[in-house]
Amino acid sequence: MKNLIAGTTALTLTMVMGGTSAWAEDISVSTTADIVSEYVFRGVSYQRGAVQTGAELGYGNWTLGAWSSLAMGETSSAAIDEIDVYGGYGFALSDTISGSTGFTIYHFPDTPGGLFDFGGASSFEVNAGLDFDTVLAPSIYAYYDLDLEAFTLEGGVSHSLELAEKTSLDLGLTAAFVTADGPGDYEYGLASAAITQDINDNVSAYVGANYSISSEDTLRFKVDGNGNGFTAKDNLLWVGAGIGTSF
């Protein structure tokens, strides 16, 4: 899933900065639509099969977006559907280092009890991170959820190989640890590989595979005889495919 970065004042600022013409020239819009065999977020499985959609608005260094994950398949009755709102601000620290800060609101419209009971229908998280424009594009991000009292420190590297003029092989590695009040601490890792095809200047599609590991049994979403969701493995291979647009 993704580094979700946020800023609530994004839309207000875009309306007061310059005229309508300048605003129209600088604004960007992107959308995504994906289908995944497992929804894994920070080393934890939340859904066994999901359709995920997102939309993001950008203006200058500001972003504002929304993302959702809708469970599908035989375990969907026990899984939690999710709708997130995020945004943020990015800035350059040097020619090779950029930073960002923001927040995310995670919302669960049908939160059941049991393992995935967050004690409410939503949680609020702040974040900050650094990206380095150098070999393997390393990054490091910190997240703190104020409602769950959970802190995550995540680092990653990535590399893209050109296979053809409009085709690339995108590789990534992520490692992190989480410390939380209640559920306890754990570590997780993720290796990903995807083939991305540019259909035109504004549309691209991908197919990919991911391998997740966790220090606890937080992977592979299942349902017990009573209809309650639980996780059962410390490693998992899962796949996905999707399409994205940008204008």
- Regarding CATH, which class? Mainly Beta
**Over all CA atoms, what is the radius of gyration?**
19 Å
Compressed to H and E, one letter per element, the order equals HHEEEEEEEEEEEEEEEE
Report strand %: over 45%
Q: Supply the CATH superfamily name.
A: Nucleoside-specific channel-forming protein, Tsx-like
Number of helical segments?
Answer: 2
| CATH-defined topology | Outer membrane phospholipase (ompla), Chain C
> How helix-rich are the residues, as a percent range?
under 10%
Alpha-beta content class: mainly beta
Characterize this entry briefly:
This protein has 247 residues and is mostly beta strands. The chain has helices at residues 10-16, 20-26, and strands spanning 27-36, 39-41, 44-47, 50-59, 62-71, 82-92, 97-107, 122-132, 139-145, 150-164, 167-180, 186-198, 203-214, 219-223, 229-233, 235-246.
Can you walk through the features of this model?
- This protein has helices at residues 10-16, 20-26, and strands at residues 27-36, 39-41, 44-47, 50-59, 62-71, 82-92, 97-107, 122-132, 139-145, 150-164, 167-180, 186-198, 203-214, 219-223, 229-233, 235-246.
- The chain is globular and about 55 Å long.
- The chain has 247 residues and is mainly β.
- It is built from 2 helices and 16 strands.
- The chain has one domain: Nucleoside-specific channel-forming protein, Tsx-like (Outer membrane phospholipase (ompla), Chain C, Beta Barrel), CATH 2.40.230.
